[in-house]
Amino acid sequence: MKSLLKNVLVGVFSIAFVSTVVRAQNIPASAETVFKEAMVKASEQDKKIFILFQASWCGWCHTMERFMNDTSCEELFKNNYVVYHLAVKESDDKKHLENPGAEAMLEKYHGEKSGIPFWLIFDKNGNLLADSQIRPAGAGMNTPGQNVGCPSEPQEIAYFIKVLKETSSMNDQQLAVIKSRFSRK
């Protein structure tokens, strides 16, 4: 038991140290480091992981972040998810903002052709639960679908709410608040 606790603590401190050093040098953390940090935090807080792929130039990415951080929604997301952002698809003059390995992660989860924002939801152990793609009925997660990105159309918002209902402890009243916020453009 002591050995397991020691290994967990060493892992947590190692991730924290690497993250601190990388941030101090203004080098974006790798997607792998971000994901490991998210798993540690999600385990500690018994939450799901919400990874949002975005770029500095992307208006819909900024809208998604603004809606999730709106005073009506912010606590609902914070109570259920640890939210992390990965920069991808930056313009040539801003490639330095990209998280190394984020494009590969986007490709691994079939989001490379989907546009951004693109989001993934994992359990605290790193198992994929949902993504931002609406797929035909019966299609599996390996089938490309239509990316809802920042949901704004009724079908996209309905899908987003369905995913949140399946991956969080939010009740219908709380989900209605999120639906209302995303419905207002």
List the helices and strands and how they pair.
Blueprint lengths: L1 H23 L6 H15 L2 E7 L4 H10 L5 H7 E7 L14 H7 L9 E5 L5 E4 L1 E2 L11 E2 L6 H14 L4 H12 L2
Parallel strand pairs: 1-2
Antiparallel strand pairs: 1-3, 3-4, 5-6
Description:
- With 185 residues, the chain is an alpha+beta fold.
- It contains 7 helices and 6 strands, in the order ααβααβαββββαα.
- The strands form 2 sheets. It has a 4-stranded mixed β-sheet with strand order 2-1-3-4. A two-stranded antiparallel sheet has the order 5-6.
- The longest helix is centred in the N-terminal third of the chain and has 23 residues.
- The mean pLDDT is 89.
Which characteristics define this entry?
four-stranded mixed sheet; about 15% strand; alpha+beta; two-stranded antiparallel ribbon; about 180 residues
Report a brief summary of the structure:
This protein has 185 residues and is of the alpha+beta class. 48% of the residues lie in helices and 15% in strands.
Portion of residues in beta strands equals 5-15%
Order of helices and strands: HHEHHEHEEEEHH
Shape: globular
Q: Describe the biggest sheet?
A: 4 strands, mixed
Helix content: 40-55%
- For the biggest β-sheet, the strand order reads 2-1-3-4
N- and C-termini, Cα separation = 52 Å
Number of strands: 6
